[in-house]
Design brief:
single chain, alpha+beta, 31% helix
């Protein structure tokens, strides 16, 4: 059972993308829907991770080079799916000329992003009532 990550557009996959993001962000983390749907999805590149054809995780790359909306369903976490999604988004960003992809990480996930080549900078800040740190890609540590 090897996860597969594919690049998709919002127009082609919005229902799947919303389903996973709503389960993780809206239901699990109590992020208001109006903050989750920020108007950037239509202009962003999206990624879906699937196991045996079933979508289990998503990520988004915005035109600015910001990676976000990383979400993996609870039963599939800590199995490398997030790292595969992150790698796909970083590679896409680099291929599109973003020399320093960046993201806003929830503080509980800082070590995950550090293990995958990101370094935190700046102060803590709140986004949707959740503590975050800005992070930039400094290169793979694997």
């Amino acid at each position: 059972m090897t996860p597969v990550v594919r690049r998709v557009t919002w127009a082609d996959a919005c229902e799947v993308l919303k389903e996973i993001r709503f389960k993780v962000f809206v239901e699990e983390q109590a992020v208001p829907i109006e903050e989750e749907l920020d108007g950037m999805d239509e202009v962003s590149t999206h990624f879906i991770a699937s196991l045996d054809g079933n979508p289990v995780g998503v990520a988004r790359l915005m035109p600015s080079g910001q990676i976000g909306r990383m979400a993996v369903l609870i039963p599939y976490r800590r199995n490398g799916i997030g790292a595969l999604l992150l790698c796909a988004a970083v590679n896409e960003a680099l291929e599109n000329g973003h020399v320093e992809p960046f993201l806003h990480a929830q503080t509980h996930a800082l070590s995950f992003y550090e293990e995958n080549g990101f370094s935190a900078f700046g102060e803590l800040f709140l986004d949707a009532g959740i503590e975050h740190r800005a992070m930039r890609y400094v290169g793979s540590k694997k």
